[in-house]
Amino acid sequence: MSQVDTYLKAAERDTTRRSYASALRHFEVEWKGFLPATQEMVARYLADYAASLSMNTLQHRLAALSRWHTTHGFPDPTKATRVRQVMKGIRTLHPAQEKRAKPLQLDVLQRVDAWLQKAAEAEQARGDHAVALRHVRDRALVLLGFWRGFRSDELVRLRIEHVDIARGEGLTCFIPRSKGDRNAEGRTFRCPALSRMCPVSAYESWLAASGLTEGPVFRAIDRWGRIAPEGLVAASIIPLLRRIFAATGLADVAEYSSHSLRRGFAGWANANGWDIKELMEYVGWRDLQSAIRYLDVSPEGLRERFERGLPDAIEKAPEEPVAGKPQFKLIRFPSK
Fold first, then answer.
1. Please, which of 149, 253, 280, 291 could form a disulfide with 265 given CB 3.0 to 4.6 Å?
2. pLDDT over 90 (residue 25)
């Protein structure tokens, strides 16, 4: 592989490369399409899967086809007017509400944190070091993920050598690359030490229990308590969180995902008076539209706003004569 190929490969994420390859296999193998494709072929492909695939999936398939044609020097059929019109028609005939992860509320976080601490202590007392170690890791992952508003890819990219702790103040971590960092410039994140549910002390407890000094922060742990040399993958975070929430006794765990941590923190910050610009800077959102998608308006708060804006109730006119007040009666005179 030449140096040019090395840099070209490094410019694209492995996950993107794999997902695009999967999309092309679906087009060629399952649908029996041909590359390079014509605009008519792409339009028929979209029409065949319009009712069974989500709009996001169809857009991803188009992006993969577009990349293949551009890379190989062929005209891009996905940009044709006919294809765009087909996509518009699919949106019209198959509208779908965007599914969003259930935000992790602060009281639920407190419940999860308390359960993980007690469970770790109980398993350690029983002599099950592997399970106790897993609980300590999970507590650090949940608390750091919530209070930093991290995505799953940011959590799994954390490395011990990129994390600095200031005793009693907080921690600073550098992530060289993340989903929101399109130009791979890297970004430094800060997280304060807290009096309760502290992500910094949870992180320190994990390092002390694991004995790790370098490499990925969060890793798999086998049944014998052996820690994997490589880090967790982003796809493993959702099932890991759901297992934790189920063990804690939460209902509807399928509604939670890795975005629940980020949405939960955004909702907490918004309810506690954080300015939207301040929140965007802390979490790392580049545009306002991305931030708004994570903020939910509480139905209770919405009702209070409406009630405050309503006029005072109008008093009804008395139906009975008021004592001491002269009453007037209309007298009609006969016409001449």
1. 149
2. yes
Return the number of other C-beta atoms located less than 10 Å from residue 152's C-beta: 24
Q: Which CATH class for the 106-292 domain? A: mainly alpha
Domain boundaries, the chain: 3-93, 106-292
User: What is residue 191's DSSP assignment?
Assistant: E
Which residue in this structure is represented by tokens 């508003």? Answer: 149
Pairwise CA distance, residues 80 & 43, whole Å = 9
The predicted-structure confidence for 49-62, as pLDDT tens digits, reads as follows 999 998 989 999 99
Quote the radius of gyration of the chain (alpha carbons, Å).
29
Residue 317's pLDDT band (cuts 50, 70, 90): low
Closest CA to 258 of 171, 316, 178, 335: 178
Question: Right CATH number for 3-93 from 2.20.25.90, 1.10.150.130, 1.10.1740.10, 3.40.120.10?
Answer: 1.10.150.130
Q: What is the mean pLDDT of residues 43-54?
A: 94
Q: Which residues make Cβ contacts (< 8 Å) with residue 77, sequence separation at least 6?
A: 36, 37, 38, 39, 41, 42, 65, 69, 83
Q: Which residues contact 135 (CB under 8 A, 6 or more apart)?
A: 116, 117, 119, 120, 123
| Cα–Cα–Cα angle for 186, 183, 276, rounded to 5 degrees | 70
Q: Check: pTM over 0.90? Answer yes or no.
A: no
Instruction: Provide φ and ψ at 319, rounded to 5°.
Output: -85, -30
Q: In what order do the strands lie in the sheet with 163-166?
A: 163-166, 170-175, 187-192
For residues 139 and 154, the answer to whether their CB atoms sit within 8 Å is no
List Cβ neighbours of 46 (8 Å cut-off, separation of 6 or more).
58, 62, 83, 86, 87, 90
Is 3-93's fold the same as 106-292's? Answer: no
Structural contact between residues 219 and 232, judged by C-beta atoms closer than 8 angstroms: yes
Q: What is the rounded distance in angstroms from the CA atom of residue 171 to the CA atom of residue 198?
A: 11
